[in-house]
């Protein structure tokens, strides 16, 4: 397929990309060309209509089609690039992983449905899991046959992960953990088969102590999933109730009580190289919005012109920070991740507000069209299909909350990086 660019097929899972890069002149350019060519060739035919689908606020769009696309990527060897080859990965270098995410975003390829497994749980199992857990779960992530949900936030805890109250008790007789409690804002639980869950396994413990990281099957009588309708009318998030739900005793990652360490390790993976691909998407949004502002004359308004310029500068700052972080040129990786979250979340929220200002009064009017086919997979009969800028504005209201709120990120920076006194708790 790619024989014109390299003597071997880079879309072959048997090829160790890192080893190939070390022995190939101009490896980065060759790899980028190969990825670009493959995406151009395959984002066509049955997959052509998926371009740009499934992003924030549009998670309902073409889920089955995007799942088929993810599995197509897997068969071609383009999943889990950064994982070690012994676990089904490609052994890709950091540079190659960045290139892939950037080319994927530039191709306007559809949002992935396997992000939580590939980018979060998989690397966490490789770092903290047993060999038996890796053998059981990693292949299903590589080939996208098992999807994962994240069971962190709770109604009484929100972004305060140390405040979780969901419990798990080890039943020696049955050889299972028995889980009780409720999670909320659980991404993709309505389509996933498994959930990684932070539970309190030590009775009477509080805060960071006594927590454990469990792998819990969703498809069982003790688990109830209830979708939460968002401002955008879609339901990516869910409430998940555990009522004597069970999971095998050996499906704990790390030792009992190691849950905080494992959970924090996972969050570091969450803010990895994929954020550079995210920034390519941000750049596209800004360029599209700038073109609209110029075509309508809104850019001539000094305030809007200034805001567009500040948005461009902010994007450059995000890029520079991400490159420094990935190169290790920072005092604290934990602090760098928190800074990155503050940068992109506030920037993206502000872009949504800027879009409403650019479009003006029409932004307040619901569009008259709907999306054809399985894209409009929403059960609410009163749902109105939003246009891309309305979705951007509404969804980005949550950017500064999910994944760790602004307040939590600032506390992390203040206490763990700057060494300031801990915030007083009521």
From TrEMBL:
UniProt GO MF annotations: flavin adenine dinucleotide binding; oxidoreductase activity, acting on the CH-CH group of donors
- Kindly list the GO CC terms recorded for this protein: plasma membrane
Q: What InterPro entries does the entry give?
A: Acyl-CoA_Oxase/DH_mid-dom, Acyl-CoA_Oxase/DH_mid-dom_sf, AcylCo_DH-like_C, AcylCo_DH/oxidase_C, AcylCoA_DH/ox_N, AcylCoA_DH/ox_N_sf, AcylCoA_DH/oxidase_NM_dom_sf, Mycobact_Acyl-CoA_DH
What superkingdom does the record give? Bacteria
Q: Which cofactor does it need?
A: FAD
Domain Acyl-CoA dehydrogenase/oxidase N-terminal: from-to ranges: 31-143
Q: Which residues form the Acyl-CoA dehydrogenase/oxidase C-terminal domain?
A: 257-418
SUPFAM superfamilies, per the entry: Acyl-CoA dehydrogenase C-terminal domain-like, Acyl-CoA dehydrogenase NM domain-like
Q: Which Gene3D superfamilies match?
A: Acyl-CoA dehydrogenase/oxidase, N-terminal domain, Butyryl-CoA Dehydrogenase, subunit A, domain 2, Butyryl-CoA Dehydrogenase, subunit A, domain 3
Q: Which residues form the Acyl-CoA oxidase/dehydrogenase middle domain?
A: 149-244
Q: Keywords assigned by UniProt? A: FAD, Flavoprotein, Oxidoreductase
Q: What class of enzyme is it?
A: oxidoreductase
Against Pfam families, the record matches this protein to:
Acyl-CoA_dh_1, Acyl-CoA_dh_M, Acyl-CoA_dh_N
Report the EC code(s) recorded for this entry: 1.3.99.-
Q: Which family does it belong to?
A: Belongs to the acyl-CoA dehydrogenase family.
Mind telling me which PANTHER family this protein's record contains?
ACYL-COA DEHYDROGENASE, ACYL-COA DEHYDROGENASE FADE29
Q: What is this protein called?
A: Acyl-CoA dehydrogenase FadE17
From which source organism is this entry? Answer: Gordonia insulae
């Amino acid at each position: 397929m790619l024989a014109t660019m390299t003597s071997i097929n880079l879309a072959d899972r048997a090829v160790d990309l890192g080893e190939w890069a070390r022995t190939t002149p101009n490896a980065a350019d060759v790899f980028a060309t190969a990825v670009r060519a493959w995406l151009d060739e395959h984002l066509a035919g049955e997959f052509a209509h998926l371009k740009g689908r499934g992003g924030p606020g549009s998670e309902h769009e073409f889920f089955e089609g995007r799942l088929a696309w993810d599995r197509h990527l897997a068969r071609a060897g383009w999943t889990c690039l950064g994982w070690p080859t012994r676990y089904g990965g490609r052994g890709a270098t950091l540079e190659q992983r960045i290139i892939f995410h950037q080319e994927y975003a530039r191709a306007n390829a559809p949002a992935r449905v396997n992000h939580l497994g590939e980018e979060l749980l998989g690397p966490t199992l490789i770092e903290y899991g047993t060999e038996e857990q890796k053998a059981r779960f990693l292949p299903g992530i590589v080939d996208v046959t098992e999807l994962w949900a994240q069971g962190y936030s709770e109604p009484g805890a929100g972004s305060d992960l140390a405040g979780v109250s969901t419990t798990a008790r080890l039943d020696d007789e049955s050889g299972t953990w028995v889980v009780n409690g409720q999670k909320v804002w659980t991404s993709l639980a309505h389509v996933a088969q498994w959930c990684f869950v932070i539970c309190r396994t030590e009775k009477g413990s509080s805060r960071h102590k006594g927590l454990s990281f469990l792998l819990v099957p969703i498809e069982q009588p003790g688990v109830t999933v209830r979708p939460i309708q968002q401002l955008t009318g879609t339901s990516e998030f869910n409430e998940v109730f555990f009522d004597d739900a069970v999971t095998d005793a050996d499906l704990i990652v790390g030792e009992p009580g190691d849950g905080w360490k494992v959970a924090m390790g996972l969050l570091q993976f969450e803010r990895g190289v994929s954020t550079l691909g995210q920034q390519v998407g941000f750049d596209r949004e800004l360029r599209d919005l700038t073109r609209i502002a110029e075509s309508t004359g809104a850019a001539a308004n000094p305030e809007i012109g200034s805001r567009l310029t500040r948005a461009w500068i902010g994007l450059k700052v995000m890029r520079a920070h991400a490159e420094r972080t990935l190169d290790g040129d920072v005092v604290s990786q934990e602090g760098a991740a928190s800074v990155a979250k503050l940068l992109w979340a506030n920037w993206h929220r502000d872009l949504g507000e800027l879009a409403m200002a650019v479009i003006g009064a029409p932004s307040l009017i619901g569009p008259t069209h709907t999306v054809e086919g399985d894209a409009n997979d929403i059960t609410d009969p009163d749902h109105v299909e939003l246009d891309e800028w309305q979705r951007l504005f509404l969804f980005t209201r949550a950017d500064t909350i999910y994944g760790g709120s602004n307040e939590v990120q600032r506390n992390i920076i203040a206490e763990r990086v700057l060494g300031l006194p801990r915030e007083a708790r009521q």
